[in-house]
Amino acid sequence: MTTHMLTSTQTVGPFFWNALLREDAVHNVLTTSETRGERIRIEGRVLDGDGAPVSDALVEIWQANSFGRYQHPADARLLPLDPAFTGFGRSGTDNDGRYWFETIKPGSVPFDGERTQAPHIVYTVCSRGLLNHLLTRLYFADEPANEADPILRLVPAERRATLLAQRDMNAGAVVYRFDIVLQGAGETVFFNV
Amino acid sequence: MVTTIGTIIRGNRDVFPPYLYEAYRSTVKRAPGMPLVDVPLTLSEMTGPGPVISAVTPEDADLTTNAGTGGEAIGQRIIVTGRVLDERGAPVPKTLVEVWQANAAGRYIHRSDQWPGPLDPNFLGIGRCLTDEAGVYRFLTIRPGAYPWKNHPNAWRPAHIHFSLFGPSTVSRLITQMYFPDDPLHALDPIFNSVPTEEGRRRLIATYAHDVTQPEWALGWRWDIVLRGAQATPFEAQTQQEGAR
């Protein structure tokens, strides 16, 4: 088997907006009126080691649908696909470091033949000053399945809270708040996967 | 270049830059300081958004005219093409490639790029395409200029084109930059030099391709891209985790 050396990463830099966040490339709203599942809004900020907002970050999410199925050829399980939901989102951050998504709470997905994973959303974070993107996960703080989640259990207990989005209500809508702290106090757990 | 180089790296340490590379000043407050947590591949990482993103038009791949002004971008017209492969050498078909770059004078259309290089009204500096069944992407553009930045006194970025690719899975996602050969600015650029090995850096540099060059039209450059695959099965992921205990 020939193994080719992987292409290295370089920073996304400060000038990606016109390309990656053009009107038809930005994707804050993952839902339509047809999408199945519990509507949620995710709001958060990206912060640097001084607690200052990162106003030039790119945040992408990937998640299963409300039935716990990914719209992807590698997920061939006999669960419903939702034609009104792809599971992909892409947001920039504003001058206060804020990003947001309107989506649905994903279902559980399997870990292996026996165990399941608690509902979660995969995050990819890029910005100027990040030579390689960061990978993390949003979990739902009010979700009892977190206790047994095989990935959360690999995270040192004192750092798990950085992956838990807190449920809130705003004008009758469910909001989960999830900040991403790149460095320092409360630094978000990032994964090497 | 003497600099403080961090030890926190995601992925292969011979290939990928550390998060902290002090000579690139923006890393100092943005690099994570805590160790990354090693986790196995699960279905969440073996899947990814690549296959569901496919909305592009043929015009998107022609940066010399996609400003839509009816005029052509100023600069040396070039064709940039190559294959997107996984590490086994298999082509990655139908995956989105997004690019962005400075114009021929080294200027971006962006509110925070304010140096006195001229803007070109016929050049947006953005493009995208899907790879074909053989994993081949192709852009028509103009050769970007070098540009100054404020990282250190008299700092200039070598000419480059930014690339963003999805590939088939979460772990195949790649954001990088393509450079041109024989550029004296390479040796002075902390972003380029953050790649830890000479071979890794060499693979970020395109090769002049006379077979791609079109007579009396455009110079050809070839640059192949290798994305990580997601070959591990859930069973292997489980074994990996058990082994880590």
Which secondary structure elements does this structure contain, and how are they paired or packed?
The complex is a heterodimer of chains A (193) and B (245).
Chain A: H1 17-20, E1 39-47, E2 57-62, E3 88-92, E4 98-104, E5 109-110, E6 116-117, E7 120-127, E8 134-140, E9 164-170, E10 173-177, E11 180-181, E12 191-192
Parallel strand pairs in A: 1-10, 1-11, 8-9
Antiparallel strand pairs in A: 1-4, 2-3, 2-7, 5-6, 7-8, 9-10
Chain B: E1 37-38, H1 43-46, E2 77-86, E3 96-101, E4 126-130, E5 136-142, E6 147-149, E7 155-157, E8 160-165, E9 174-179, H2 190-193, H3 198-202, E10 207-208, E11 219-222, E12 225-227, H4 234-244
Parallel strand pairs in B: 2-11, 2-12
Antiparallel strand pairs in B: 2-5, 3-4, 3-8, 6-7, 8-9, 10-11
Quick summary:
The complex is a heterodimer of chains A (193) and B (245). Chain A is mostly beta strands and 193 residues long.
Provide a count of the helices of chain A.
1
Q: What would you call the shape of chain A?
A: globular
Count the beta strands of chain B.
12
Structural class of chain A: mainly beta
Q: Are there runs of chain A of 5+ residues with pLDDT below 50, and where?
A: none
Cα-to-Cα separation, first versus last residue of chain B: 40 Å
CATH class of chain A: Mainly Beta
- Measured on Cα atoms, how large is the radius of gyration of chain B? 19 Å
Annotation, overall tally of beta strands of chain A: 12
The unreliable regions of chain B are: 232-245
Cα end-to-end separation of chain A? 23 Å
Our count of domains of chain A comes out at: 1
